[in-house]
Amino acid sequence: PANVLNNHRAALVPGFAYNGTPFYLSEYGGIAYIPPGAKVPEESWGYAGVEKTPEAALDRYRSLTSAILKIPAFAGYCYTQLTDVEQEVNGLLTYDRKPKFDLKAVYSTNNP
């Protein structure tokens, strides 16, 4: 049907067709990881639990990002979030702005 992108589920309201206008994915991510020694509130959380290792969190990041990169309609995307904020520990950086992951791995994920 005309309202379906990439042979997946309907992306537009029935009766409307995709006209080639680029989409911007304004929020994705929510992958929580707490590095050893990071000072976080006791009630810290992530949308799908907290990953135990940086490798597990980075694998989820790679998986989500690579899926997004396969959709040609997306002109851009924004990971949520750049830094941990209060009890949300889903940042690429800790609350005090220290990288949780190898930044080269994050870069290469976004620039395959």
Short account of what is shown:
By secondary structure, this protein is an alpha/beta fold.
Description:
With 112 residues, this protein is an alpha/beta fold. It has one domain. It has two helices and four strands; from the N terminus they run βββαβα. A two-stranded parallel ribbon has the order 1-4. Strands 2-3 form a two-stranded parallel sheet. α1 packs parallel to α2 (103-110). The radius of gyration is 17 Å and the shape is elongated. The two termini are 31 Å apart.
Total beta-strand segments: 4
The gyration radius over C-alpha positions equals 17 Å
How much strand content do the residues show?
15-25%
Overall SS class: alpha/beta
Number of domains: 1
Order of helices and strands: EEEHEH
Kindly report the spatial arrangement of strands forming the biggest sheet.
1-4
> In terms of per-residue confidence, which ranges show pLDDT below 50 for 5 or more consecutive residues?
none
State the separation between the terminal residues, measured CA to CA: 31 Å
Question: Quick one: overall form?
Answer: elongated
In percent, how helical is the residue content? 10-25%
The largest pleated sheet is described as:
2 strands, parallel
Question: Counting H and I runs of at least 4 residues, what is the number of helices?
Answer: 2
Quote the average pLDDT.
Answer: 88
